[in-house]
Amino acid sequence: MKVDLHKKVRVIGAGLAGSEAAWQCARRGAAVELFEMRPLRTTPAHQTDSFAELVCSNSLKSESENTAPWLLKEEMRRAGSLLLKIARETAVPAGHALAVDRVEFSRRVTDAISREPLIAIRREEVTQIEADQLTIVSTGPLTSDALCSEIARLCATSSAHSHLYFYDSISPIVEADSIDMSKVYLAARYDKGSADYINCPMSKDEYDRFYDALLAAHSVEQKDWENLNYFESCLPIEEIARRGRDTLRFGPMKPVGLKDPRTGRMPYAVVQLRQENLRADSYNLVGFQNHLKFGEQARVLSLIPGLESARFLRYGQIHRNTYINAPALLNPTLQMKAHPHVLFAGQICGVEGYVESIATGLMAGMNAAALAIGGEPAPPPRATAFGSLIHYITQAENKNFQPANITFDLLPALDTRVRDRKERHRQQCELALREFDEWYSRRLGQATDPTLHAK
């Protein structure tokens, strides 16, 4: 559906998806109004009013070639993602992963968006969405109650549930100089990349003491109105522990591939710490999101070797993640089926993860810009990482819809069966990138920015 030429695009929310969407619209010649309610109104998880603030981990997943996260990032790079470019400019050591200095990353994104002449920034809360106004809703998992009600109104034509939610948690952060380095060692799992992770090894006795203390610790009280529906890929550590004594050893405390160079042996369990910023003065506990009271966290986490006297800059927390029932509501262009001038991007559209949020923001920005300048939006090919991710959120079974990360499970199978997993993934990546390049080159005809034509 075409709209008036050069119609302004409203982008609601300046998180990862919204910032990328606004940038993609502007570089294609579409004027943007970017709305961000912070600092007028804050959220339970945000700490600043900067754009693209990372509230959980600081990792944008694997950079190892021919992995699913690498494939999605490679497609984003070829599409000219602003946020991915800034992420690589603000990267901190993290082995084979792309992790960023979260403060510097947000600062640079805010600066780039603020300097773009086609983007007008509005620091105000949006509580109404006009169905005939070209709009990208990218308010993320912490959408305000007022806007949630408005989204529910827009979704009311669907017989499926209009919007859903699950609960997500935030990992603790410790000061680097409070870690007892005599009890830890540096290593990356399977020696992939440089040895950038601090590893806190545990013997069986140490693990058992930690496990028992974790199970006995008091969680934050559940509110009467809460139904704690955790996302399976981001469970609090105490929830994982309740599933069995060894579940943590096969999850966030997995020692496989982390041989202790001092002993030459693999520890019974291990806790990994990842660098938080370029100054390397703080580290986060990888996979240690939790819903414990702060005092309990201090007591339990001090049982980890090397963290006996750790000073915590941030304790683990929990917050509500809101997302819509995308399969019932969205087309593969991320437009609403009932209201095609309204698009959704980011975690609220049913993806999980930083990279996935940025990717959907990029796609929504491209499609909104096409509509604004009189073109036609088009979904990416199914064989690509972009196409497979969007295919999942728009075509999944809607009665039990759960947000998803990018994985090879989402990509279509090859025409010819390949038994070797690495070779199969290599061929899937090769096919995906070839089809992405062909599709993207056709999309360039609607662009007005000549820099779009340069990879």
Structural class: alpha/beta
In helices, the fraction of residues equals: 25-40%
Count of strand segments: 16
Question: How many DSSP H or I helices?
Answer: 12
Structure write-up:
It is a single chain. The strands form four sheets. Strands 10-11-12-13-9-14 form a six-stranded antiparallel sheet. Helix content is 30%, strand content 15%. It is of the alpha/beta class and 455 residues long. The protein has two domains: 9-166 and 321-453, FAD/NAD(P)-binding domain (3-Layer(bba) Sandwich), CATH 3.50.50.60; 172-315, Elongation Factor Tu (Ef-tu), domain 3, CATH 2.40.30. The chain is built from twelve helices and 16 strands.
Primary descriptors:
455 residues, alpha/beta, FAD/NAD(P)-binding domain, six-stranded antiparallel β-sheet, 12 helices, globular, disordered N terminus
